[in-house]
Amino acid sequence: MRPAASRNRSAILVVLRVLAATWVVCMLSCWPGHVQAAEPEIADAVVQPSEGEQKKPSPWLLVPVFNSSPKLGITLGATGAYLHQFDPKSRPSIFGVTGQYTNTESIVGGAFARTSFDEDRQRLNAGLAYGNIKNDYNDYLGTGVPLRNNAGLKSFISRYLHRAYGDWFVGVQAIYQNFAIAGDTAFDDLVLDILGVAPSKSGGLGLVAYYDTRDNEFKPGKGWVLSLNNLAYRESLGGDQNFDVYRVDIRHYIPFGDGNIFAFRQLNHLTSDAPTASLAPVQLRGYNRSVHQRLHVSNRRRIPPASG
Predict the structure, then answer these.
(1) Per-residue pLDDT reduced to its tens digit, 207-257
(2) Hey, is 16 helix, strand or coil?
(3) Which 8-state DSSP code applies to residue 38?
(4) For residue 8, which of 121, 143, 177, 173 has the smallest C-alpha distance?
(5) How far apart are CA 120 and CA 175, in angstroms?
(6) pTM across the whole model
(7) Percent of the chain that is helix, strand, coil (3-state, to 5)
(8) Which has the closest alpha carbon to 92: 82, 106, 79?
(9) Which stretches of the chain drop beneath a pLDDT of 70?
(10) Strand 60-69 to strand 73-84: parallel, antiparallel, or no bridges (unpaired)?
């Protein structure tokens, strides 16, 4: 996996962000609300509708998706989801699918599930992503060379957590990705070959330790969460290379004043023997995570622009 792999995965990250936003919209749309008019003769009394008269919110949701980004262009699509609570003590679970088409003739889609069951003693998250991305670079990663290519990505991720004690969870996680790329012309294929950008596969397994005291998983007002996890990518799991990834994620939410919340996050991402595309990214608002990768590409070989 090389720099192009990381840039094309960023298109899939756009889909995943949309899925997270969809969950929030789904929660708001399913929030029960009902206004019951009072009878004229008892206008001063508060009339409560009977249980049979209350209109239950629909667990189904269909949301149009519109997005514009430098990577994908103008995107139009839809997301459908189903919300369900397995028992009173478990958190709401959501199951959904999404699909998008862009003005660059790219296609992205996916299916996702985020579940809590067995009185929130067990949690299972899973996601399936697909992307067929068409790229047209005027300057590919600072090399000064134009590049047009078609890239495809198929990815599956899953994490299972079991409540061990109190707010502590332990579990396992897995990931598999299949990345394919080809140039539009013979020159584009030559550029990809010189840069070392080639189709690749990766598969990894890892362990998770998770501590969560947040009052709400998606709109926390207080509490904190600690996530310790790793992924061991191995050729025996269907990958092309052996390397390791370690992550430590700490988030703390402190309420103060009248409805204010101070949020703190410390994210640590470490790698060992990882290829360029899987190096620890810089994740800051307004920062292009592929900027630091240009140094790796530029230091490998600078390709003169095509002439004639």
Answers:
(1) 999 999 998 887 889 999 999 999 999 999 999 889 999 999 999 999 998
(2) helix
(3) P
(4) 177
(5) 24
(6) 0.73
(7) 20, 45, 35
(8) 82
(9) 1-54, 70-71, 139-143, 145, 181, 184, 186-198, 276-277, 282-308
(10) antiparallel
Q: Read out DSSP for 68-121?
A: EETTTEEEEEEEEEEEE-SSTTSPPEEEEEEEEEETTS-EEEEEEEEEEETTTT
Instruction: Note whether 53 and 37 are within 8 A (CB).
Output: no
**Contact of 141 with 110, CB cutoff 8 Å:** no
Helices (H) and strands (E) in the chain, counts: 3, 11
Query: Strand (E) positions, 138-217?
Result: 147-165, 168-183, 200-212
Instruction: Report the distance separating Cα 11 and Cα 149, nearest Å.
Output: 14
Task: Locate 162 and state its tokens.
Answer: 């079991």
Torsion of CA 185, 186, 192, 198, to 10 degrees: 90
| Cα dist from 102 to 21, 67, 243, whole Å | 19, 9, 34
Sign for the pseudo-dihedral over CA of 188, 193, 197, 200:
positive
Q: Could you give the strand order of the β-sheet that contains 243-256, starting from the edge strand earlier in sequence?
A: 60-69, 73-84, 93-102, 107-117, 122-137, 147-165, 168-183, 200-212, 223-233, 243-256, 260-272
SS3 8: helix
